[in-house]
């Protein structure tokens, strides 16, 4: 699992519109990237979390032009429906093959019968590609500390 100060593993994943998103390109364009790993589209806590990011995105955008990327193992088609239903204003990336959740060490081996899905986790990646902050939650019923996340992004 990468730690704060280490280089973030690069990746290329399809978004909800089947467009390839490359982490290094997002960093080059936006400077700071917030990776929001979530267990499953349409679940109650994930909906609450991603809507919190949606509602706070203006604040994050004004801080270093930060870009939020949601990541789950759901298919792009499920993510598209979820994005439309919740009017999400940032890309949702499909890690259907589970390579990125493994690279970031956020695999939940069994969540109420769902095997090898993502833990709820947030990573802040700086423009130099290093991890500035990480929060990995073992209890999927919990949400990240949004206040601390905002402070970290503001300080970069």
- SS field, number of helical segments: 5
Q: How does the overall form come out from the CA principal axes?
A: globular
- Portion of residues in helices? 25-40%
Strand order of the largest sheet: 5-4-3-8-9
Q: Would you tell me the overall average pLDDT?
A: 89
Strand % is: 25-35%
Please state the CA-atom Rg, rounded to the nearest Å: 14 Å
Give the topology string: H per helix, E per strand: EEHEHEHEHEEEEH
Structural class: alpha/beta
Alpha-carbon distance between the termini?
Answer: 22 Å
Q: Tell me the total number of β-strands.
A: 9
Largest sheet: 5 strands, mixed
Low-confidence stretches: none
Report on this model:
By secondary structure, the chain is α/β, with parallel strands linked by helices. The chain is 34% helix and 28% strand. The protein has 5 helices and 9 strands, in the order E-E-H-E-H-E-H-E-H-E-E-E-E-H. It has a 5-stranded mixed beta sheet. The chain has a two-stranded antiparallel ribbon with strand order 1-2. Strand 3, helix 2 (44-62) and strand 4 form a beta-alpha-beta unit. The longest helix has 19 residues, at 44-62. The chain is globular and about 40 Å long.
Task: Give me some keywords for this one.
two-stranded antiparallel ribbon, 156 residues, alpha/beta, single chain, 34% helix, 5 helices, five-stranded mixed β-sheet
Per-chain topology:
Elements: E1 12-14, E2 20-22, H1 23-30, E3 33-37, H2 44-62, E4 67-72, H3 76-86, E5 92-94, H4 99-103, E6 107-111, E7 114-118, E8 120-125, E9 131-137, H5 146-155
Parallel strand pairs: 3-4, 4-5
Antiparallel strand pairs: 1-2, 3-8, 6-7, 8-9
């Amino acid at each position: 699992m990468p730690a704060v100060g280490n280089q973030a593993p690069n990746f290329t994943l399809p978004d909800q519109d089947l467009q390839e998103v490359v982490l290094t390109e997002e960093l080059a364009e936006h400077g700071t990237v917030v990776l929001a790993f979530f267990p499953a589209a349409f679940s109650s806590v994930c909906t609450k979390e991603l809507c919190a990011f949606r509602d706070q995105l203006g604040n994050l955008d004004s801080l270093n032009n930060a870009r939020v990327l949601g990541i789950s193992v759901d298919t792009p088609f499920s993510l598209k429906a979820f994005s439309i239903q919740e009017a999400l204003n940032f890309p949702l990336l499909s890690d259907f093959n589970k390579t990125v959740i493994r690279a970031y060490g956020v695999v939940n081996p069994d969540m109420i019968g769902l095997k090898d899905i993502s833990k709820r986790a947030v990573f802040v990646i700086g423009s130099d590609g290093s991890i500035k902050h990480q929060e990995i939650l073992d209890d999927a019923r919990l949400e990240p500390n949004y206040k601390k996340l905002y402070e970290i992004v503001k300080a970069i």
